[in-house]
Amino acid sequence: MARLADYFVLVAFGPHPRGSGEGQGQILQRFPEKDWEDNPFPQGIELFCQPSGWQLCPERNPPTFFVAVLTDINSERHYCACLTFWEPVEPTQEGPCARDAAAREEEADEGGSGALSPSAPGPPDQLFAPKTLVLVSRLDHVEVFRNSLGLIYTIHVEGLNVGLENVVGNLLTCLIPLAGGSQRTISLGAGDRQVIQTPLTDSLPISRCSVALLFRQLGITNVLSLFCAALTEHKVLFLSRSYQRLSDACRGLLALLFPLRYSFTYVPILPAQLLEVLSTPTPFIIGVNAAFQAEAQELLDVIVADLDGGTVTVPECVHIPPLPEPLQSQTHSILSMVLDPELELADLAFPPPTMSISSLKMQDKELRAVFLRLFAQLLQGYRWCLHMVRIHPEPVIRFHKAAFLGQRGLVEDDFLMKVLEGMAFAGFVSERGVPYRPTDLFDELVAHEVARMRADENHPQRVLRHVKELAEQLYKNENPYPAVAMHKVQRPGEASHLRRAPRPFPRLDEGMVQWIVDQAAAKMQGAPPAVKAEKRTTVPSGPPMTAIVERSGGLHGNSARRLEVVRNCISYVFEGKMLEAKKLLPAVLRALKGRAARRCLAQELHLHVQQNRAVLDHQQFDFVVRMMNCCLQDCTSLDEHGIAAALLPLVTAFCRKLSPGVTQFAYSCVQEHVVWSTPQFWEAMFYGDVQTHIRALYLEPAEDQDPFSVGEAPLQGDERSALDVASEQRRLWPTLSREKQQELVQKEESTVFSQAIHYANRMSYLLLPLDSSKSRLLRERAGLGELESASNSLVTNSMAGSVAESYDTESGFEDAEACDVAGAVVRFINRFVDKVCTESGVTSDHLKGLHVMVPDIVQMHIETLEAVHRESRRLPPIQKPKLLRPRLLPGEECVLDGLRVYLLPDGREEGAGGPGGGPALLPAEGAVFLTTYRVIFTGMPTDPLVGEQVVVRSFPVAALTKEKRISVQTPVDQLLQDGLQLRSCTFQLLKMAFDEEVGSDSAELFRKQLHKLRYPPDIRGTFALTLGSAHTPGRPPRATKDKGPSFRTLSRNLVKNAKKTIGRQYVTRKKYNPPSWEHRGQPSPEDQEDEISVSEELEPSTLTPSSALKPSDRMTMSSLVERACCRDYQRLGLGTLSSSLSRAKSEPFRISPVNRMYAICRSYPGLLIVPQSIQDNALQRVSRCYRQNRFPVVCWRSGRSKAVLLRSGGLHGKGVVGLFKAQNAPSPGQSQADSSSLEQEKYLQAVVSSMPRYADASGRNTLSGFSSAHMGSHGKWGSVRASGRSSGLSTDVGSRLAGVGPPQANGAPPDPGFLRPQRAALYIIGDKAQLKGVRPDPLQQWELVPIEVFEARQVKASFKKLLKACVPGCPATEPSPASFLRSLEDSEWLIQIHKLLQVSVLVVELLDSGSSVLVSLEDGWDITTQVVSLVQLLSDPFYRTLEGFRLLVEKEWLSFGHRFSHRGAHTLAGQSSGFTPVFLQFLDCVHQIHLQFPMEFEFSPFYLKFLGYHHVSRRFRTFLLDSDYERIELGLLYEEKGERRAPQACRSVWEYVERLSKRTPVFYNYMYAPEDAEVLRPYSNVSNLKVWDFYTEETLAEGPPYDWELAQGPPEPPEEERPDGGAPQSRRRVVWPCYDSRPRAQPDAISRLLEEMQRLETELGRPPERWKDAWDRVKAAQRLEGRPDGRGTPSSLLVSSVPHHRRSLGVYLQEGPVGSTLSLSLDSDQSSGSTASSSRQAARRSTSTLYSQFQTAESENRSYEGTLYKKGAFMKPWKARWFVLDKTKHQLRYYDHRVDTECKGVIDLAEVEAVAPGAPTMGAPKTVDEKAFFDVKTTRRVYNFCAQDVPSAQQWVDQIQSCLSDA
């Protein structure tokens, strides 16, 4: 029984003591006056009576009622029912200040009107003061309180004839039962009657309608998020204008949390004076009047629920974890079914006529039932994770959180983690964990109904039925007797509060009330206590838990097979069948990723342990440790699946003998796992073991079988769980004698104590490293170090800390580091011991004893370990595979010998088997080598089942873009090791873990050396440059110095003078007056001593350069002329360097040597093409308008439309303004304007007028190909606007580039018709940002096209992302093609390529239609170069041949100064700028075009990859340095020419390509069948672009295939005869896509046939023919065969149904008359640049002779040989050659020298018509007799020969004749 009310209090308004505006509450009277012993009077009631503050009021308000909740220090809740009414203020009662204050308040309230509202009754200045009746109770009967206080108020107001003292006395003495469903009728002695019902079970909360109201106010989603917030300990604040609503909402939220209890601050109604409570750091649920909303706004971490507005505001910084799916969505849908039953029927065609809607009270219970079910599902099986640590004297219970999460499959779930860690759950465990107690609805539900809930999941109606059943039970619990709620209580009349009360509330007589109370107390003492005995039972445990969601075991589907593998492997190990075990091990290690396999391993190993010990031999020990490590590697620190727990007894059981008396246990090899340093793991383990032992104490010996593993002891037979045992014991406890009780308590305590000692030992085993001098443990294990600072122990740190410190100081270790480890371990163990012993109730004496023991235990263990460590060092090391040495290039040297490493998978699928198929080659073990040129890994797969494949991965040191240190697990032993991750821009990634034998210093040395090689301080340190100088075989080093000193000195002088000139030119720039004509000829005095003087630069250009150059200069000129660009200019007919003074004036352009000293522009070549009419001296001034002085120069001219392509840097602002903003044509008066911009204008004018069609003044557009009518018909681009061209095209061109022009299907280039008939002569493509605000005027003939381009840094960033996408570095979490494509898209690489192609195609269109184009972007060396090169490639078929592409790269990229060294970060200086692959991007564009037009390119895609690899590799000198100027300065540019014949490593990549092409067709494209004058227009949409396989493919068999010598194996045997692993007679071999190079393992048909021919020829003993000759012959034969009449079908071989469109706009294939271009040129001396006119065919022919098959000279069949002089082609000199007559092959071959292996040419004897004596011609050798000359006449031409003397001539003629007659 309990008192209905503890105190009755009367509180009234009183003035504030400090005289402030507000009043304050004063307690007038309280009953009883002295406190109850069991329940003191709560403080601060007066604050809670008027939560918004005590204020006077100008009118009578109706009485109000609400219940506030106060919590006392013992967290008991007191309910304060407050009924407030207003009484007129008596003037005596209030001081003057209060009245003023009230008046002031009033003004504020009335908006400052100052007058009181007329409606107020009574005199105008009458004020009313509040008075409150308060009832304080520990029971929660709100309605009874409302009625009782209402009755007292009614008696007072209505003046009933009842003594208030009696009523109050009766109220205070009324006793009611607590629970158990009794009902009691009470009366307060005023003719009233009330029935009080108590709930059936005390533990279930009472909610009335509060939950339903909460859902009505806030809605489902909001309430769910408040529910989660309260459970995860966030702060929740309710706002409402109604106090009753606030307390209801708080009550409702608490009711939802059942069975958990909210244990933090809970204040449903918070008074205004206490608002600072809201900034408390602890969680809370608080209600506040909505008037204080502003204060709530400032709180940053409080979730605010506004009940009146129906919103919940969650601050940004707060994350409320949602319920785990599928519970979240299930709960949501059930709630909506309960709240809105009509939702289901809303769509029905014939809705049922009526719906029975539950009453609000019933709906409230239904909602609670939903949450009760939710908790049952969440916590299902929780009792299986309880550990009974003590049973007597009081149960101590711990919850194994990790096991619970692991078995529910919710380890990752944020919500459940937080709930289990929260205070509410801790309370739940201590309250509900008890095995013997009264049970309630929740216990039944969680034990018996879960299976039903799971079955109902997909049947909403069944779920609803279950909810309704539960709701019935909840309702019955609150209202056990529904029928008899008969209250009879008087109420005041309507509006009674407005009538004048007869008098203020009277003062009650304390004595009388006290007398009534005492009377009742006396009566009570006699009566027996009516206590209803609680029915206690054993709490049901329910079925074992299951996962919330059955995760489909897709990953480990065939687990039975996996477990079989694990079992077999273990049995092999213990039977000593090591080879078998070794084969299975990798499969086992893979299987152990699955949970079942790890459990199985633990169980299997248990079977092999006898009497807690199992001694193994070394190999067995090794295997067992490996498997254990693999198991533990995936354990998180919580060990939620109990794997570490199961292995813990085993690591102290398995051991091996190292020497007599020294045994090494497995624990010393499995320490590297995070789980061992997690205190929570040790606690759970400890409690589990204690439970097992305590259970054993009380079990009969017969049934005591130790279960296999903690935490998951399934009930077998009659075996009772520890909870059952405990329940039984608790039932018996009261019946035991005192002595028996004591004995049991002591037994239990000693059990806990002995376990604590056992665990102190166990922990020292696993925490002390084998080598105690290594403090690695402290560094790497997160656990120990952090525990130092943050202990989660319940005891303060002081005890453990002080003991540990004293231990440190006394132990007297010499070795500080060891002491460090020991100290840390001691502190860790002490903390653990402190915590578990205090929680398990060990006495403090015992605890102290333990603290003393711990340091000794640790010390002893350290000493044992020293011996073990010493002995284990003596063990022979495990046989590691032999290091495989990599093959090196000639001249490549090893810098660091192999460091043993493991190569780990890099995230590409290939190495792991992947989609291409094949086994997992990675991880592999081997070594990493660092050479002067590369970083190389060679090794073998760690999985022995893969086979004996060698895995090679390498990349050039120069390609390294990023290295970072990582910490990784070695694949075999699962130890944590230091590692390195090296990423290269050739798309290789070495992710390596160093073997333990590699010390950290060796690893560091490796990093330093790598860095030194990657960024040499000077370019001379690069491999390409050190190679030639240090290792020229067979030549004394001195020779290199003297080689061609003239070149060196020349280049030095060149540079010196250039520097002077440059210096001077800056000095004179201030004001530049061209010197008068007289002075022009003579040098200015101070320059006399210069070898080349400045004045020469000012010479009128009519003088040809050669006539005015000094001798040394002439040499420069000849070198310059030899450069690639010059040959190309001659081919294009852009001018020649002729020596005649009468240069043809008709040529519009000329080659100007103005930059031969690199004085005008450092980054331009020495010879430039400029308009004929511009003088050299003007160029100096023009160049100033452009960035980097890169003024516009011509780089290509269209052969058909004669339009030219120019390139330059971007404009300086000054130039732009001067040039374009002058709106009218320049008048003579403007000459004072900036001269350079005028010059610039003249320059552009000269370019325009140099184009043939714009030269005529009429300016008519005679554009061939398109008539105006034809153009008009294309309405695509709109009509010509009135304003003419200026407004028209520029917007169109610009908008097309911006991508907004009229779209074309498939991104095809638009019809050329888009260009208007009235077209500019010159388009300037510039950067949008740079050309802002520029308006060209219509009279000028050029026009600006502003486009947006990306900058170099964007290329860099994009490339970084591309690298990450193609080689992710770590295996993807869910490898799907989508993730690769997504990251590829994020990199924006293809978008940049799309833009480049788009701009290039536009320029091609413009050039093709006859307009010239100037590309003037950025500094003119990145994007400009890309665009200009692409344009030439698309427009001119010559550049699509091998020779032409080389010329293009040499001209546009090398000569025009693309900054290879800067962009490739070749030296230390460039390290910060990083790698920017501008050239690679260009190659990618070429590759995209190649894909779309496979028949137009002479070179194969491999050629592009080869260049892509070697432009960063620094193996060749070609791509070093930033410009020709720098190359000259280093003496690189012309040195090559002098040393060309020296037999040494190739310096130039082109030379290398040439040599290689003679031996193998790897760079040749068999589908090459070009059309003449074909302009390509590729599609550029991203959808048409493909990812270049250069980025994604890799062959692990030999590393990148671009260093041909390395990739090929020894070059001698032909390809097929490479020794295979298979039997020699079998021709079959396995080709793994991820391992072998597919093109080499399965060559295409043509290469295959060529190889086959070679093989057959060799078998026949004939010297093999060169592949190119054979190929050309086949093509010629094919053509003749296919065309009996000279025309005919395209040859099947060439066209071979290539599925491709020739032109992007019309898809048709045709073979042009290509006979001439493919005929084999017999005379290889005919140079491509002989004359401009024949250069086209010549170029074509000479490319075909580049390829001649490599063969050693000795192996050939030589019938006769000797030296002959041979006359070259027309206008060529005689030359001595070595001739070989080959009767087998029926041909006459000739070589440069006798020893040469490369044949210079072949005369096929089948074509010889006659051999006749000849006559000497001009230039023949002087000393030879005339009779020694003879001619050989073939069907094609006549060859002139000359022998050394007459007899040898005769002999040659005879030999040839006999050969002919044999045929």
Would you identify the regions where 5 or more consecutive residues have pLDDT less than 50?
Answer: 93-122, 550-557, 702-718, 775-818, 1030-1051, 1058-1115, 1215-1233, 1255-1317, 1536-1543, 1610-1625, 1684-1755
Radius of gyration: 49 Å
Q: Termini, distance in Å?
A: 134 Å
Major β-sheet annotation: 7 strands, antiparallel
**Which percent band covers the strand fraction?**
5-15%
- Number of H- or I-type helical stretches: 64
Give a count of the beta strands, DSSP E runs of length 2 or more: 42
> Residue share in helices?
40-55%
What is the average of the pLDDT values?
A: 76
Shape: elongated
- Classify the secondary structure makeup into a structural class: alpha+beta
User: Strand order of the main beta sheet, please?
Assistant: 25-24-23-22-28-27-26
